[in-house]
């Protein structure tokens, strides 16, 4: 099964804008249809799976989330 599922954020391995997979790869061509915004306009294109990389996103915690995590950890230790 392909890792390029609908909604996954990808980017061309050679660079360019982040794009969203609009569907799973076409079984016949194994191409992935992607969409992205350029200059405020929605763009679409099909790309070979081999040319795409999944964009890893690191969740950023704000201070309130960090404080809550510390509080819960302390409760577990008591």
Number of helices: 1
Distance linking N and C termini: 45 Å
What do the pLDDT scores average to? Answer: 86
What is the approximate shape?
elongated
* Rg, alpha carbons: 18 Å
Unreliable parts: none
Count of extended strands: 5
Which structural class should the secondary elements be placed in?
alpha+beta
Percent range for β-strand residues: 25-35%
Encode the helix/strand succession as letters: EEEEEH
Oligomer: single chain
Largest sheet: 5 strands, antiparallel
As a percent range, the share of helical residues equals 10-25%
The main sheet orders its strands as: 4-3-2-1-5
SSE blueprint:
Blueprint: E1 9-12, E2 19-21, E3 31-38, E4 41-48, E5 52-54, H1 63-77
Antiparallel strand pairs: 1-2, 1-5, 2-3, 3-4
Tell me what you see in this structure.
By secondary structure, the chain is of the alpha+beta class. The protein has one helix and five strands; from the N terminus they run E-E-E-E-E-H. A five-stranded antiparallel beta sheet has the order 4-3-2-1-5, with no helix packed on it. The mean pLDDT is 86.
Short description:
With 78 residues, the chain is of the alpha+beta class. It has one helix at residues 63-77; strands at 9-12, 19-21, 31-38, 41-48, 52-54. The longest helix is centred in the C-terminal third of the chain and has 15 residues, at 63-77.
Q: What are the salient characteristics of this protein?
A:
78 residues, alpha+beta, 5-stranded antiparallel beta sheet
């Amino acid at each position: 099964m392909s890792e390029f599922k609908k909604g996954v954020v990808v980017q061309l391995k050679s660079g360019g804008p982040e794009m969203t997979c609009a569907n799973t790869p076409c079984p016949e061509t194994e191409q992935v249809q992607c969409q992205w915004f350029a200059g405020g306009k929605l763009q679409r294109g099909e790309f070979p799976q081999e040319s795409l990389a999944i964009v890893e996103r690191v969740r950023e915690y704000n201070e309130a989330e960090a404080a809550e995590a510390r509080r819960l950890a302390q409760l577990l230790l008591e």
